[in-house]
Structures are given as structure tokens and as C-alpha cells.
């Protein structure tokens, strides 16, 4: 499966489908973490494509950023987010490494989501329960998007849901999708969201690409962008 599609769609889930069209995930929301696999959830590093956004997240978590490269910061942010989630869930931290703690956090979030979905949890193997919750979420989103679910392989259905959602978002933004793959469409959505935010914030966009504008938004206008709830802070969960 295309990793970019998985990430951007999972972000949509984490925002109740008021989707942020970005490959940058800043949310530790339950839906995102349940949608992704336990293996992905337990990896250090995350999906930060903007170093400015990564640094901001690190600072929010009380992590010292001076003199650290992006790889180190991403690792520390991942560890801090898992520890924070574990504390919120009442999980004992002592004597547990990152992978073990991440697995417990993921399972607790799966359990919570299962309860929300009305799925019985008693006596079920954690991996099988996670699979059941995941498939239920995929089918729910498919139905919301008007996609038939009968007799469809779950992997194919998930891809169809993700691609349909991305195309719908592009249509809303007036982006031409003809002859373009999901990755290219996602990139265009991402860039348009950034330019829209930059204009709203009064940033001079001349001769600046999307990455440069995003870095400027984060570094110099983060508080205002948060207040206005514009990308990359629209309906952001904390």
C-alpha cells in the first residue's frame, strides 16, 4: 500500500474527516493510531516532513531542540507522545521500553475504539481485535462515501476509500484530477492548503515554494494560524 495515502487518509480519520490534506501528522488522536498498524504505531520517527513543524511539536512537548537534527527530534517526539498517551491512559511506565509501551498504548486505543463501535472485546486476541476494529472503520468510511462494501477485499476497499476521499477533497478545492495519481493529487492539495494559509496570514508568497511557506507559517505565524484554525492547525487535536 502507498504509505503516503495511508498517512494522509489516517489524518483524515483523526480529524473526524474534516481532513488536513498533508503528509505531516501532528495528532496523537485515537482514530489515527487505531487506523495505522501496531507496527507503524510503535516505530520511532513519525511522519514529519516539515522540520519547522517537527521542532514546534518538540517544543510543545517540552523537548530541548537546540543542536539536534530532525532524526533525533523525531525519535524524541515519538517517545514523548507515547509516554504522554500512556500516562493519560493510566498505563504503568516503569521498566518498559518504547516498543512495549507503544504496543500497550495502541491496544488501549483499539479497545476504546472497539467500545465506541459496539464491538465485543472480551476474550479476543489483541491483534485479531485490532483487525476487526480496523475493518469496521474502513467499512464505515466506505459507506459514508457511498462506496459499496459487499464482496470486497478489505485492502482493495481501503484503497478505494482513500482514493475517493482524496479525489473529493481535490474537487472541493477546484484541483483538476484528470490523469493524475493519488500521490500527485495529494501533493497539490497539500500545496494549495499551504498557499491559502500563507495568503490569509499576509505572507508574501512570491518566489517561495510550498515547503518554504510552510516553514515560515510554522516559524513566524504559528500562534496566529492556530487562532484562525487554518492549515496546518485546522481543527487540530491536542
UniProtKB/TrEMBL annotation:
Residues making up the signal peptide according to the UniProt record: 1-21
Keywords per UniProt: Signal
Descriptive protein name: Transporter
Amino acid at each position: 500500500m502507498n504509505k503516503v495515502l495511508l498517512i494522509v487518509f489516517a489524518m483524515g480519520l483523526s480529524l473526524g474527516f474534516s481532513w488536513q490534506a498533508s503528509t505531516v501528522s501532528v495528532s496523537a488522536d485515537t482514530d489515527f493510531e487505531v487506523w495505522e498498524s501496531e507496527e507503524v504505531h510503535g516505530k520511532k520517527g513519525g511522519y514529519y516532513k516539515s522540520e519547522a513543524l517537527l521542532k514546534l511539536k518538540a517544543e510543545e512537548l517540552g523537548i530541548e531542540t537546540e543542536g539536534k537534527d530532525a532524526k533525533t527530534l523525531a525519535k524524541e517526539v515519538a517517545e514523548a507522545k507515547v509516554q504522554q498517551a500512556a500516562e493519560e491512559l493510566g498505563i504503568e511506565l516503569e521498566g518498559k521500553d518504547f516498543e512495549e509501551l507503544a504496543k500497550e498504548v495502541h491496544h488501549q486505543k483499539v479497545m476504546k475504539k472497539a467500545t465506541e463501535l459496539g464491538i465485543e472485546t472480551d476474550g479476543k486476541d489483541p491483534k485479531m481485535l485490532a483487525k476487526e476494529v480496523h475493518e469496521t472503520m474502513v467499512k464505515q468510511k466506505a459507506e459514508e462515501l457511498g462506496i459499496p462494501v459487499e464482496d470486497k477485499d478489505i485492502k482493495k476497499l481501503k484503497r478505494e476509500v482513500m482514493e475517493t476521499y482524496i479525489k473529493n477533497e481535490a474537487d472541493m478545492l477546484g484541483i483538476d484530477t484528470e490523469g493524475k495519481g493519488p500521490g500527485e493529487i495529494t501533493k497539490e492539495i497539500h500545496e494549495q492548503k499551504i498557499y491559502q494559509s500563507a495568503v490569509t496570514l499576509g505572507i508574501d508568497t512570491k518566489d517561495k515554494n510550498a515547503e518554504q511557506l510552510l516553514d515560515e507559517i510554522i516559524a513566524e505565524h504559528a500562534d496566529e494560524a492556530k487562532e484562525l484554525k487554518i492549515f496546518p492547525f485546522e481543527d487540530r487535536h491536542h
